[in-house]
Design goal:
Layout lengths: L9 H12 L8 H13 L3 E4 L5 E5 L11 E6 L22 E3 L2 E3 L7 H15 L8 E6 L7 H5 L9 E4 L7 E6 L1 E10 L2 E3 L5 E8 L17 H10 L6 E8 L10 E7 L4 H18 L8 E7 L4 E3 L1 H13 L3 E5 L7 E13 L4 E10 L2 H17 L3 E8 L9 H14 L4 E5 L4 H8 L4 E4 L4 E2 L7 E3 H17 L2
Parallel strand pairs: 3-6, 3-7, 7-21, 8-20
Antiparallel strand pairs: 1-2, 2-6, 4-5, 5-23, 9-18, 9-19, 10-15, 11-13, 11-14, 12-13, 16-17, 17-18, 22-23
This protein binds zinc ion (ZN).
Length: about 475
């Protein structure tokens, strides 16, 4: 870190180094908050903590800029605590150890917290630097973004006066974010009835593995296979063989595209050869369908011992039918931005609860457009209800609808071209940002999100590109100067 402090964005590196030294995983930001409160006190910077634990710091305009539009600069206080299995690290006590490797800054086999620590460091650097030119400033540091956005959810409607908000939580230099998706969870329970399997029958496990999976929002447009949906369509293609379903499961997280799914089926011994051949053919068909996307895909069949129970025919038909027809993947594309998904749904988890005799299904619906999100969630709910499912919706959070007339966007784009002689990319992220919640509470806020390049956030491989932090700092300070 010493060597970084001689660079352009030297103040950012100095504050980032302090932030790394103070543990601040989500829901344990107290020590870092106290450090910031004390730091502000020493500098006579107004700093208050609101009821939910967000910090709001204020800085008056630089001399001659008092008339300028007031700006809110925002970052989140918490970081995701992830380490490699063999790494000894207590995120509540141990400091993060940043290491320079070439053009990148890493941590020592843990997350680095550049997400959103660099943004936070830049906020402090702006507060501390009295040579900068800017209008009235409010710094909003939210609590607990990573595990529920409780800070953004709890922010009061009258806490801020600024009319422009700059969010620093994006992760690719050269991209300016002007919108994000909101989300809603659809939770479904489908009861089933069971019966005994024929003792003379054979049992097989059909397993679909090797899929890429990925983020159910950001990666939904990559054409990847959903393991649950593909396994259901495999079972649907076995119709020439009368089989009974004994178990079915797939996926592990609602917000991840399922990478694996498995079923145990039971059928007469005479079908052994044909079922094995058919699975081989279906494996080839899937590889062909997902050529160059899912080349490690593997559909396998193996013998298993006979299970004690199978689903009744009615329950089996009902379950397979409703999963087959459940809306999944991209639902609509944005008309104003090319290649931007507007709405999507992800059938993320399917669990069989043998005690309660039911299947539990988790779907995540995302959209930039609130009404569309509600409509899709309702359509999926009604679909499952028509198959005797009970449905509960929760985890609703709003999106941020892109505003093509955004002033802050125009200023930042102009500054970017002026500074770096190339146009920045305009982006809308198909995932949640705190901006969605801010836009609900402060509908008139003109917002933008940007940041330095951070790779593999939320994983022990997290790293930030050092040169991109210089560019980030230049763009940020020049933008604040340019806002009229
Ligand atoms: Zn973040």
């Amino acid at each position: 870190m010493q060597t970084l402090q001689s660079r352009n964005a030297s103040e950012i590196w100095s504050y980032f180094s302090s932030i790394c030294a103070i543990p601040h995983p989500s829901k344990h930001e107290e020590k870092l908050k106290q450090w910031i409160i004390n730091w502000a006190k020493k500098r006579d910077i107004n700093c208050v903590e609101d009821e939910v634990g967000n910090l709001i710091l204020k800085k008056s305009a630089s001399i001659g800029s008092e008339h300028k539009t007031p700006v809110i600069l925002q970052a989140h206080l918490d970081m995701v605590p992830q380490k490699n299995n063999l790494t000894q690290h207590d995120f509540l006590i141990d400091p993060i150890q940043p290491i320079i490797k070439g053009e990148w800054l890493h941590a020592n086999n843990t997350t680095l917290g550049a997400d959103n620590g660099i943004g936070m460091a830049s906020c402090l650097a702006i507060l501390a630097d009295n040579t900068l030119e800017h209008g009235p400033l409010e710094i909003l540091l939210t609590t607990d973004e990573e595990t529920g956005m409780t800070g953004a959810f709890g922010l009061k409607k009258d806490a801020l006066q600024g009319t422009i908000l700059i969010n620093t939580d994006s992760e690719q230099e050269g991209e300016l974010y002007v919108g994000c998706a909101g989300g809603i969870n659809v939770n479904v329970n489908i009861n089933y009835e069971k019966m005994e399997a024929e003792p003379s029958h054979n049992a097989y496990e059909i397993l679909l593995t090797g899929l890429k999976g990925g983020h159910s929002g950001c990666d939904i447009n990559l054409g990847r296979a959903n393991a649950i949906k593909e396994l259901i369509s495999v079972l649907n293609n076995l119709e020439s063989i009368p089989f009974h379903l004994a178990s079915l499961q797939g996926g592990s997280l609602r917000n991840a595209i399922p990478r694996e799914a498995s079923a145990i089926i039971v059928c007469d011994k005479i079908h052994q050869n044909s079922i094995e051949t058919l699975i081989g053919t279906l494996n080839q068909q899937l590889l062909k369908k997902y050529k160059n996307i899912e080349d490690s895909l593997l559909l396998q069949i193996t013998s298993r011992s006979l299970p004690c129970a199978i689903l009744t025919n009615t329950s089996q038909k009902n379950l397979l039918d409703c999963l087959l027809k459940c809306e999944n993947g991209i639902v609509s594309m944005d008309n104003n931005f090319s290649n931007v998904v507007q709405s999507s749904s992800n059938l993320g988890v399917l669990v069989q609860n043998r005690k309660s005799l039911r299947f539990e299904i988790q779907v995540l619906v995302r959209s930039q457009i609130e009404e569309e999100k509600q409509q899709i969630a309702e359509r999926i709910s009604q679909h499952f209800q028509a198959h005797l499912g009970t449905v509960r919706k929760d985890g609703n959070y709003p999106g941020w609808k892109p505003n093509i007339d955004s002033k802050i966007y125009k200023i930042m784009e102009e500054k970017y071209i002026e500074l770096f002689e190339t146009k920045p990319k305009t982006m809308v992220i198909h995932a949640g940002l705190e901006c969605g919640l801010f836009s609900k509470k402060y509908p008139h806020l003109d917002m933008i999100s940007f940041g330095p390049t951070i790779k593999y956030p939320h994983s022990p491989d997290e790293k930030v590109h050092i040169g991109s932090v210089d560019k980030y700092w230049k763009l940020l300070t020049e933008t604040l100067k340019a806002i009229a």
